[in-house]
Design goal:
The complex is a heterodimer of chains A (about 240) and B (about 230). Chain A has about 240 residues and is of the alpha/beta class. Chain A has ten helices and ten strands. In chain A, the strands form two sheets. In chain A, strands 6-7-8-3-9-10 form a six-stranded mixed β-sheet, with helices on both faces. A four-stranded antiparallel β-sheet of chain A has the order 2-1-4-5. Chain B is an all-alpha fold and about 230 residues long. The chains are: A alpha/beta (about 240), B mainly alpha (about 230).
């Protein structure tokens, strides 16, 4: 592999395998790459291994095979650095928002990165402004609407200044206007993105390339339209 | 949900809200020690403690009725022991037991009603309380609401298919089982989300405030107030 490609590569995964403790083989030899600034959609049926795969990207799950994030091999000693580079926005925002107020929740990541409390709060306010949530700084996350929760969850990840965003079903539970606003927000973010979704329209709007998962393997990859047509991946 | 109301109270701006959480926690501890060592016959002293709490709640702009109603939730538990004491022939001791429980509950509520959760858990941490205990408190507080909402949705779903409340004990037992399993699953998800944002087993307080002279003065005033009531009345 040439040095130029290596420098430009945000994610490089080779031969990734993972078996859950109950014996289910969730990933069965995944080879995957993502370039800096690129956005890719992960399609596939429920249980095909998409979410299991993305949980490997910042070391939440550890399988066999090799993973490199921005040139750094994923290992115990690089875990902290890698978690600051890969921001994961989970499907269920309630699992992601665990602090008593919105501001404290968004400051949680920067504080863990070692920023001083003052700097962490400044950064939290900046990203909350960016996602349009400055009106809710002191509100409890459980008082927010689904769309607001998702925005705060994204702010919490952006506050860590990641180079890669992993979005697991980002538009689940959102009404059409909220979905539209969220899509505009996501499109404005410069980070490389891995978007786990069933939504072909979202993938078309947000990504240029798609990967199709089937039973823990990559069954196909290519342009979004091509994958949608090849695997009949639309509701009607 | 009671904890939501208390959460709202704790975000107030009174002088009591502005006191350092460590000073308030120390004041609570002093109050509880003095209260628990007061002899049952000293009924005027209990009245004095109640007056002290009323003054503090008024200064904190907390609704007295709401505070008393929530503090009264401890009474059914202490009432069991109070009744046993009453039957053994010591009515004054039984009364004192109920009074002490109620006043302790009110004082604890006064602390959590004037201090955000992160404040008083940070105070506990500064006192070297076990980290695991603090984490459990923080998560129970945060997710009680989410789990309660989930329980409500499951109950509605069950009622939609069942149509009546009959046999609700069996239904409740099933719901509790499923809720436990789901809570376990959710706990796993939360832990993943925390790790993903760099969590290393400790909540870093966002704004550790300095312990000011006014906080020390407040603590001294509380100590003096408790002792004066205890000794003079």
């Amino acid at each position: 592999m040439s040095n130029d490609i290596r420098l430009n590569r945000a994610i490089q995964v080779r031969g990734l395998r993972y078996r859950y403790p109950d014996g289910t083989q969730a990933l069965n030899g995944i080879d995957f790459h993502l370039d800096a600034g690129e956005s890719v959609a992960l399609f596939g049926a429920n249980g095909s291994g998409k979410t299991t795969f993305v949980l490997h990207l910042n070391g939440l799950l550890r399988g066999e095979g090799s993973i490199e994030i921005c040139g750094l091999p994923l290992a115990d000693e690089t875990l902290e650095q890698i978690r600051s580079k890969v921001g994961v926005v989970f499907q269920d925002s309630d699992e992601q928002l665990f602090m008593p107020t919105v501001l404290e929740d968004v400051a949680f990541g920067p504080l863990n990165l070692g920023l001083s409390p003052a700097d962490a709060l400044i950064r939290a306010r900046t990203v909350l402004k960016r996602v349009g949530m400055t009106h809710a700084l002191e509100r409890a996350p459980y008082h927010l609407s689904a769309g607001e929760k998702k925005r705060v969850a994204i702010a919490g990840v952006l506050a860590m200044d990641p180079e890669i965003l992993v979005l697991d079903e980002p538009t689940t539970f959102l009404d059409p206007p909220t979905r539209r606003d969220l899509l505009a927000l996501l499109r404005s973010l410069p980070q490389a993105k891995v978007v786990v979704t069933h939504d072909a329209n979202l993938a078309r709007a947000l990504t240029t390339r798609a990967v199709f998962f089937d039973q823990g393997r990559i069954a196909g990859e290519g342009e979004v339209i091509e994958i949608i047509q090849r695997f009949h991946w639309e509701y009607s | 949900m009671h904890h939501l109301v208390i959460d709202r109270w704790s975000r107030g701006t009174s002088s009591l809200h502005q006191r350092d959480s460590r000073a308030k926690l120390a004041a609570l501890l002093v109050f509880l020690i003095v209260l628990s060592t007061t002899p049952p016959a000293a009924q005027m002293v209990f009245a004095g403690y109640a007056a002290l709490l009323i003054i503090a709640a008024t200064r904190a702009q907390l609704p007295l009725r709401g505070l008393a109603g929530r503090a009264a939730l401890v009474l059914p538990f202490s009432a069991t022991f109070a009744l046993l004491t009453w039957w053994s022939g010591n009515s004054l001791r039984a009364l004192a037991l109920a009074e002490k429980s109620f006043l302790s509950g009110t004082a604890a509520l006064l602390l959590v009603g004037t201090t955000p959760l992160t404040g008083w858990t940070a105070a506990l941490e500064s006192w070297r309380a076990p980290r695991m205990l603090i984490l459990v408190i923080q998560f129970v507080y945060r997710y009680l609401f989410v789990i309660a909402e989930q329980a409500q949705r499951m109950r509605w779903a069950a009622l939609c298919r069942k149509g009546s409340q009959r046999g609700s004990f069996r239904l409740a037992a099933g719901l509790i089982g499923v809720l436990f399993a789901r809570s376990w699953q959710r706990a796993d998800g939360i832990y993943h989300a925390m790790l993903a944002r760099g969590f290393r087993g400790r909540f870093v307080p966002a704004a550790p405030a300095p312990f000011r002279a006014s906080d020390a003065l407040f603590l001294c005033a509380c100590l003096a107030g408790c002792l004066v009531i205890r000794i003079l009345l």
